[in-house]
Amino acid sequence: MSFVIAIDGPAASGKGTLARRLAAHYGLPHLDTGLLYRATACALMDEGLPLDDVEAAVEAARGLSLIDFDEARLRGREMGEAASLMGAMPAVRAALIDLQRNFASRPEGAVLDGRDIGTVICPNATVKVFVTASPETRAQRRALELASRGEEVDYAAILEDVKRRDARDSERSAAPLKPAADAVLLDTSELDREQAFAAALAIAEGGR
Ligand code: C5P
Prior knowledge:
Layout: E1 3-8, H1 15-26, E2 30-32, H2 34-46, H3 54-62, H4 71-74, H5 77-87, H6 90-104, E3 109-114, H7 117-121, E4 127-132, H8 135-148, H9 155-171, E5 184-187, H10 193-207
Parallel strand pairs: 1-3, 1-4, 2-3, 4-5
The chain binds cytidine-5'-monophosphate (C5P).
């Protein structure tokens, strides 16, 4: 039977790492849906278009092929900020729904991570996890991640980014960031990587 794992949570909560590891553990394909919003923003920037051009953003979202993008560039700080502007546009979200649902409908199942997987994209997912951690913990993790990729790191600016994105993602009217009613909450503030993975795996096994 199809096994769909939906992992949602705020910026830098560690949901991407958990999703990747769960996918590897179960041999399932994984889609990091944040990349779709990042790539949409990137396409607009590359064409020199403003980030509030809804029509152009929808067109970019419809024509998206992740193969055309440099993942390291997509994962940079600037693109995270721009992606959250894309995510606030209902028409962009709508344009990305089919791609995500098609990915989730593979016969074996899939792991998807994002903000609205359990609430909007895959309301019937087999397992839903909502990953959280304090803003300070998430800013520290993001700082380490960016530093490991050679980006210059300013912790205070990253903490501001995290808080601003939390506010924008939770307060928007289109698919705001919130746990699905049937999601299991996983707070990783006090957990190291292995403990967080063990906890996520236990939730996945419990929901199978
Ligand atoms: O997860 P990541 O940090 O890559 O996401 C970048 C931005 O894309 C988020 O701040 C959010 O605004 C948007 N996003 C979204 N819905 C998703 C995934 C990402 O709105 N499913």
